[in-house]
Every structure is written in structure tokens, then in C-alpha cells.
Amino acid sequence: MKRGTATPPPTLGEGCLQRYDPEALSDTDGTEFPEAAELWRKLQDETGSIDEGQGAEDTAPV
Q: From the CB of residue 44, how many other CB atoms can be counted at a distance below 10 Å?
């Protein structure tokens, strides 16, 4: 039985400028999640963890 393996897509650049090659990516490689901001707001509203003194940059996921 063969073991599963994962290989990252090809990259361009070096160091801090390294990024995945957009021409080599396909739909199976993506992590697009357009509803992420809406989900984050909903989760924050449910937990009540957004303080009035904080800006958006203080509450955004990292």
C-alpha cells in the first residue's frame, strides 16, 4: 500500500518575495474563502470579544 504524499505547487522568487506561481495553481490548490470576513464578524458577535475601543486591524485573524 502506498502512503499518501503532498507536494506544494511551484514557487517564484526568493526569501520574503517567495510566492506560489499563479499560473501553476488550479482550483484544487486554492484556499479562496469569500465568506471569511462575514464568518469572522459572526463569530466575534457570538463571543462578544470585539471591544468598542478596538479597530478592525486589532480584531482581524492573523
A: 14
SS3 43: helix
Write down the pLDDT at residue 53.
Answer: 47
Q: Are 21 and 12 in contact (CB under 8 A)?
A: yes
Residues 6+ apart with CB under 8 A from 9: 20, 21, 24, 25, 29
What pTM does this model have? Answer: 0.40
In angstroms, what CA-CA distances link 62 with 7, 38, 40, 42? 24, 16, 12, 17
